[in-house]
# Entry
Amino acid sequence: MHGRDHSAGLMSDHVPRIRYSRAVSVVAGVFFGFMASICPADVSPDQGHSAEWTIRALMSRLANVETASIEFTETKQSVLLFIDTVSSGQILYRSPDYIEKRTVSPFTERVVIDGDSMIIDKTLTSGHDQEKTVISQVYSVDSHPVLKASIESFRNMISGNYEALHNGFRLNLSGPMSGWNLKLVPDSENALAHIKEINLTGSGAFLRRIVTVQADDDQTILELAYRKLKYHVFPS
Amino acid sequence: MLVALAVAALFTLIRFDHSSDLGIFLPNAETLYDRLLRQQLDNSASSSLVLIALTGLPARELAQLNNRMLDRIRATGLFSRAVNNSSNLGADMLEFIERNRYLLTRGDLHERFSAGGFSESLHDRLAGLASAASPLEKQYVRQDPTGEVLELLEFWQGKVSRYKQPSERQGVWFSRDGKRTLILCEIRADVSDMQNQLDATQAIRNIYDEIRVPGLGAILSGPAVFATETSESIKRDGLSLTLAAIVLVLAFLLAAYRSLLTTATLALPIASGVLVAVASVLLLFGHIHGVTLVFGMTLIGVAIDYPVHVLSAGSGQEHSRVETVWRTLRLGVISTLVAYFAFLLSDFNGLQQLGVFTIGGLLAASLTARWILPLIPFSGNGRISGLPRLHDFLKRACTACGRFRMAVPVLSAAAILIMAAGEREILHLNVDSLSPIKQDRRVEGRMLRNDIGVWTGGSMLLITGADKQAVLRDGESLETALARISDEGVIEAYDMPSHFLPSVQRQERNLEALKQTERIRGNLATAMEGTPFRPEVFEPFLMEIETAGDLVPISAEDIENTVIGEKLEPLLFDFEDGAVGIVLLHGVADSEALERFAHGHEGVYYMHIKSASTDLVTRSVIHVSWTMAACLLVIYLVLSAGLRSPVRPFRVMIPTLSSTVVTACILAYSGNPLSIFHLIALLLVIGLGLDYALFFNRIAVNREEWDSTFRSLWVCGITTLLVFGILALSSTPPLRAIGITVVLGTLISMGFGAMWAAAPYGRSGS
# Structure
C-alpha cells in the first residue's frame, strides 16, 4: 500500500515513518499557520515557535513541497440524484501549479491543471470491439468561473499560496493542530454564485478532507491520503 | 522632360490591382472544377487572416504580452476578430446557442427523444456529473437532459477547426512546445484593397513595437502580411535597384559614348516604349497588374539596344546607313514581337497583359529609334569611342570564340541530353513557384497555422448545388458515407458545413420531434426509471419544450457576422449561379478512394489543392510551350523572308536556341528548376539572342562598319548584363529568377553568337 522510504501512510494510524518527516510536518504547519493568521485569537507574535502555527511560516514551508502523490476518494452528493457518486484515484502535484488528477474507478479520467488550463482526457470504450478512444477537452480556467472557484482554492491550498488564497476567500480556522478545520468562504459575489464554502480538515501536515459546498447545496467530499512527498532540495 | 512628366502622370493614374500575384499567372479557368480551384487558391476565406506568434521569453511573460497585444489589437477596430484562446465565444453567442440548441443540434431529435435516446443521454449526464467537468454539466442538465448545449459548446468553443485543438497555457494559445504564444485576427476591411492589408499589417507592427521588451521576438504571418512584405520588398528593391541600375548604366554609357547628350538620347525610345506599353494595356484591359508592370518594364529593357544600333549607323545625315542597320534591327524586333505574341495566345490573364505591354512597348521604342532618333540633331555623335581597351579585349575574345564554332552544337546537344536523361527536375510547376513569398516565410506560416489548428490546406471535397440549402441537404446525405470512409481510415477527420449549421429541412424535422410534447414526457419518464435522478429534476426542460415548437429555422444568412457565421462562411458560399460547400479533409491516407467517393456522388468533387494546381500550371506551361514552338516557326519564316534565304535563318536561330537550351540546363542543374518566371525570362533571352546573332551575322561592307557594329553589340550586351545583374540581387524571388536567367542567357548568347557568326569582318576579313 505504502511507498517504502518516502511514503507516509496517513490513512493508517501509526506515525508515518518517512525520511522527510520534518518536512512533512512542515506541510501540516503550513495549514495551521495559515489558519492562525486569519484568526486573530490564534495569531502568535512568536512565529518561530513550533507549537504555534503562523500562516506565513506555514505557507512558506508548504511552498517547499516540490512534488506530492496523493490517493483520493471523491464523493459527490447532488440534489439532482438520490444517490451519491463515488470515484477514486490519484492526485499528483508538482509545484508551483501543476496538478494531475487521475480517476481510475468507476470510470477513467485524467484531469491536468497546468497554469490556467484544465485538460480533461476521457477514455471512452465503444463498439463491439471495445475500442478505446481518448477525448481531450481543454478549458481555460479563467474563462469558466464555475470551474475556477474550486480549482483555485484547491491549488492555492496545496501550493501554500497565501496571497492568492487570501485574495479570494475569507478564512476561518478552528480546532487543534492534530485535527484542524479551515473554512473558506468566497469573497466575491461571482464566486458565491457557484460556491458557498469550502471546509478543509487535516491533521498535522496533511490535508485529509475537503468538503466543497456549492451554491445549490450540492457537496463534493474529497478524501486524501498522501503516499509520497518530495521537498525542494534547497528549501527557501 | 515632357515624356518623363507624362510617364509620371500616367503612373499616378494607374490603379494597382491586388488580384493575387499568384493567380494572374494561372490560366483563365474553363471548367467548374478549375474555377473552384482558382477560388480556393485565391482563398477568399483565409486571405483576411493574420497570425501572430510571440517568442523568446518564458511562457508566463509571453502570455502577459500576448494579452496586452490582443487588447491593443482589438482597440484599433481594424479587425473583425482577434482571439488568443479557444473560449472567447462571447455571452451573446452562448445565449444564442442555448436558445437555439434544438435547431443547431447535429443529432436527430426523433431519436434523442425516444425512450432509448433519453436513456443513453441520462447515462451520459450521470457520467458528466461524476467527472471533473461536473460544474459545467450541472449548469445545463435541468434544461437540457440530452446535452445539446454541451455538445455544441464542445464543438464551437474548443476549436478553430474541429480537427485539432490548440494547446493553451496561462489562458492563451501556445504551440505544443510552449515556445510560441499565438494570436489570430481577421481584418475587418475588404482585403481586395491592398491599402487595407498594408494598414492592418502596419497597425500590428506598431503595436508590437509598443509592447516590445528585450528578448521578445515575433512572427507575423498570413496573406496580408506576406502581401505587405512583398510590396515593401518590391518597393525597396524597386527604388534602390532601379537607382543602382540607372547610375551604373548611365556611367557605362557615358564612358562608352563620352557624350552626355547621346546618353540622354538613348533613353528616348525606352521612355516612349514604356508610355505606349502602359497606355495600350490600360486601353485594352482597363487596368494593369502591378506584376505586369514590373515584369513588363524589365522585358522592354531590351529596347535599350535599338538606339544603340541605330546610333552606330552614324549621324542623322547618313540615311542609307541607318537604313541598312534598321533592316537588321527590324528583323530582330519582329522576331522578338512574334515571341511575345506567344503570351497573347496564352490563357493566362497576366501573360496576356504582359504580351500587350511588351509588344506595344517594343513597337513604340523601335519606331522611335528608327524614325525620331535620326531627326534629333545632337544625336549625330553616336560613335562609341570610349573604353578602347575593353573594345580591344572583347574583339580578341570574339576572334578567339570563332575557333570554337563546333562548341555551339556540342554544348546544346549535351544540354538536351542531360535534361532528357538526367534525374533532375527541370520544370518547377508547383504553384508555390508563382508566389513572391520566400520559402522560409511560407514554412513559418504553415507552422503557425498548425499551432492553432487552422486547416493547413490540402484536400477537400466540394459539394455543388443550386443554393446553400441544397448544398447543406446534400452534405447531410453524405454524412453517413463520410463517417464510413473515416472509419475505414481513408481520412482521419472532416469538417463540413452541416456540422456548423443543419439544413432548414433537418431543423424542421427536429422541430416536429420537439412538438410532440406528450411523447417526450412519456419517453423521458420511462428512461428515468431505475436512474438515480430525482423525478422533478427535468421540470425546467419539460416547461421549455412546451414553447420550443415556436422556434424558427435558422438560415445561413441569419447568422452572418456572428462567430458561427464566420466559421461557416468559408465552408459554404454562393458561387456563380449556385452554391458550394466544402468538406475539409484531415489526414488523407488514400486519395484514390476519395476520387472514387466523389465520382460516386452527383455534384461532388475531390480536390487536392497542391496537385490540382500543379496540374493547372503544367497544362498552362505546356500550352505556352506549344505556342512558343509555333512562334519559332513564324520567326523562322520572318527571318527567311528578311534574309532572303531558307538557310540563313539557321545561322541566327541555332546560336539563339542553343544558348536558350544551355541556359535552361545550367539553371536546372544549379538548383533553379524553371518556374514560369524563368520561362518568361528565357523568352527574353531568345529575343536578345536573336538580336545579337543577327548583328553578328551582318555582312559588313568594310572593317570600319564591322567595328562599329561590334561596338554597339558589346554596349548592348553590357547594358543588359548591368540591368539584369542588378535585378538578380533582388530579394523578391520572381525578380531574382528573371535577373539570373537573363544574365546567364545574355552571356551565353553573346558567346554563342560570336562562335557561330558566319563571316565577321574582323576575323576572316583581316
Q: What stands out?
A: Residues 260-382 of chain B form one domain. The radius of gyration of chain B is 34 Å.
